[in-house]
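Question: does this match?
>
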Amino acid sequence: MLRRTFTFTAGAALLAAALAAGSPALAQGKKLTIGLPGIPPIFSVTIVYVAEKQGFFKKHGVEVDIRPMDNGTAAARAVVAGDIDMSWSPTPPVINQVSNAGVPLVAVYGMPNPDWVVGTTETGKTCKDMAGQEVGVDSINGARSIALRSMVAGGCKEIKIGDVKQIALGSSPGPAMLAGRLKYAVLHLDDLAEVQHQGKKLNILLAMKNTNPTSHYLILIARKDKLAANRDAYVRALAGMIEAAHFMQDPKNADAVAEAAAVTGHNKDVNKLALAEFLKIDFWAAKDDGLAKNKIEAVAALMKKIGSIKPDKQPVTYDKFVDPTVWKDANAMVK
């Protein structure tokens, strides 16, 4: 009797192990921490919250700890330090980090189309009127700051970046504009939607899509050594986000996406308005990895041109900066 019990128990254990090995939802030891820019998070990273709330991470067999951080540059530093596994971070500062300091970061997914604009609450102004004025950014040399520098260089020949006074306001310059404390700021489309929803008219002075059409916005990054050591978990996490990107494209899911975006601090109406605007510019890559070579190389060249990459350093090459195999494997898992 004892022998039979042992045999049955051992068989059950082997069966359970076999099921676990064959089921993505039961994959063992697949845990990652993903850092997101902004406290509260910026609207673009809603893709991560959709993946979590719709169960796409769980479906693909990975447990994800979501960690909002002050900004994407800080999140990238946390990846370098090994404090977190991945982060959504702005492309230009990360290219600068890799080029200037040789940090071992690699891009595996991207949001290729920046939504940055420079807005003002004043009427009848042009970009040259920013001279001598305070302009809200996230942090000096942060994503909004670099976006401002790029837009001024690409679309406002009358002034230089040194002519404006950058004011660090984290990820939320919108409230300062609503309160009348700030007249100019670098904004996302959801910032724009929020301010306008509150009844305050904004005029757009510069838009990244016009001033820098080959610009690139956000990248999902990892440390090369940690990716190599735990690649399967990274692939599964990316599969969850790819599935979320497809989910967000479907208009019938707008309410669910708007609810997931509540973490941004916007109400549901603002989130739905912002979602529609983001989808118009194909913001979340669903058909490819969002890491077009011409865009990545154009950003690197611009960073060198404007002095963000040191004179004695060369921009990181596309092949050293991007690992396309992670997305390919993750996309195959989704299909």
Summary: The domain at 20-113+216-334 is CATH 3.40.190.10 (D-Maltodextrin-Binding Protein; domain 2). The first helix runs from residue 2 to 22. The radius of gyration is 22 Å.
